[in-house]
Hints:
mainly beta; binds FE2/S2 (inorganic) cluster; metal-binding; iron; 2 iron, 2 sulfur cluster binding; 2Fe-2S
Amino acid sequence: MDPDGSEQDPEMKKYSSVCVGREEDIKKSERMTAVVHDREVVIFYHRGEYHAMDIRCYHSGGPLHLGEIEEFDGRPCIVCPWHKYKITLATGEGLYQSINPKDPSAKPKWCSKGIKQRIHTVTVDNGNIYVTLSNEPLKCDSDFYATGIFKVIQSSS
Ligand code: FES
């Protein structure tokens, strides 16, 4: 049986879900990496929710699986270990702080650059974690580092 037609259509096959591990394991480690249809992703387990995204940072290809999770403006973000860019776990938006130099009393305000990191879908079935790659047509900056010569991340980088 092939309910999503992925066996017939190789293009569709790229978007079939792939089992990447066990729920009990990621709940302990709170993150894991996986290769899903030739694309490297990181999966985070944070405050009871799963999030998956391209493993390399949209800015310059930094290893997001080695970053820390922090909250900015009430939004959980992965902070890239290379240049500290902040990426929301839920949407892949790049956050930055802006200030109005003409207003001395103004406090810096958190703003979004828009979606920069490609987010993928995580589902759990019978204790197994599945990732389905995003087929969102929107171009994400992280796509550049998810393909070609950049796509193989070194285990210790
Ligand atoms: Fe991630 Fe520069 S590579 S912040």
